[in-house]
Amino acid sequence: LSGLDPAQPYFQDTPTEVRLDRSDADFVDVIHTDIAPTIPNLGFGISTAIGHIDFYPNGGREMPGCEKNPVSQIVDLDGIWEGTRDFVACNHLRSYKYYSDSILYPDGFLGYPCASYDLFQSGNCFPCPKEGCPNMGHYADKFKNKIKNDFQKLYLNTGEARDFPLWRYKVTVTLSGKSKVRGYVNVALYGSGGNTKQYQITKGTLQPDNTYTAYIDAEINVGELTKVKFLWNNNWINPTLPKLGAATITVEAGQNR
């Protein structure tokens, strides 16, 4: 059984006979996309973990792309009816959109086991454990026999619009150069599965020999890594023409380390 943002009003904290529960099937997976309190946030989804595995994409509260202004949302690419529904219940309805996208991406929507979304965002729950990470949505049941804990909360990030899946990488850059400068460092990944856009690794004071780490959620699975593009910029003209390079760049993929 897959729960697509099961309802919160009248169901949260009720007995298991009343609401969806892990006892309802051999395997129950749940996608939570709208767990903010009903008052004042109009959250429609149940917040508690109620399945064998519970996914909280983007933390489960605010889905990327749902904060668009009402006019652009109602006059939507999918038509006025779809746009109006999205304006009223965008976060809630993301659950079925993620599910339908997951059918097309058997390797996408990896959920990382973690105590909280904040810890996931800061990289504390990266990479996947030895048994791997389950895929949110259609292929979640591939993980059925690997569950260790009674309740497993899983976190991941998604895109703002279709296609929704993102793939998480840890990028570590050690800088080389003669003197520190101010600016930013961007990195793009190239691989057998395609190329990503540029992602910012750090900004501010750039110190040669220092190491900087960022967790990026890329729009594609790059597959076998073939090349990394490194770019830095200081955003203003410096007459001393400082030079900065990368001594080393390490890329770690979440799904297979």
UniProtKB/TrEMBL annotation:
A GO BP entry: lipid catabolic process
Keywords: Cell projection, Cytoplasmic vesicle, Disulfide bond, Hydrolase, Lipid degradation, Lipid metabolism, Secreted
Pathway annotation: Glycolipid metabolism; Glycerolipid metabolism; triacylglycerol degradation
GO molecular function: galactolipase activity; lipoprotein lipase activity
InterPro entries registered for this protein in UniProt: AB_hydrolase_fold (IPR029058), Lipase (IPR013818), PLAT/LH2_dom (IPR001024), PLAT/LH2_dom_sf (IPR036392), TAG_lipase (IPR000734)
Alphabetical list of SMART domains matching this protein: LH2 (SM00308)
Pfam families: Lipase, PLAT
Residue stretches in coiled coil: none
Keyword Calcium among UniProt keywords: no
Domain PLAT, residue spans: 167-257
Annotated membrane topology: Peripheral membrane protein
Domain of life: Eukaryota
Annotated EC: 3.1.1.26
Compartment annotation: Cell projection, Neuron projection; Secreted; Zymogen granule membrane
Reaction it catalyzes: 1-(9Z-octadecenoyl)-glycerol + H2O = glycerol + (9Z)-octadecenoate + H(+); 1,2-dioctanoyl-3-O-beta-D-galactosyl-sn-glycerol + H2O = octanoyl-3-(beta-D-galactosyl)-sn-glycerol + octanoate + H(+); 1,2,3-tripropanoylglycerol + H2O = dipropanoylglycerol + propanoate + H(+); di-(9Z)-octadecenoylglycerol + H2O = (9Z-octadecenoyl)-glycerol + (9Z)-octadecenoate + H(+)
GO cellular component: extracellular space; neuron projection; zymogen granule membrane
UniProt-listed SUPFAM superfamilies: alpha/beta-Hydrolases, Lipase/lipooxygenase domain (PLAT/LH2 domain)
UniProt family annotation: Belongs to the AB hydrolase superfamily. Lipase family.
PANTHER family referenced in this protein's UniProt entry, alphabetically: LIPASE, PANCREATIC LIPASE-RELATED PROTEIN 2
Protein name listed in UniProt: Pancreatic lipase-related protein 2
Taxonomy of the source species: Eukaryota, Metazoa, Chordata, Craniata, Vertebrata
Gene from which the chain derives: Pnlip
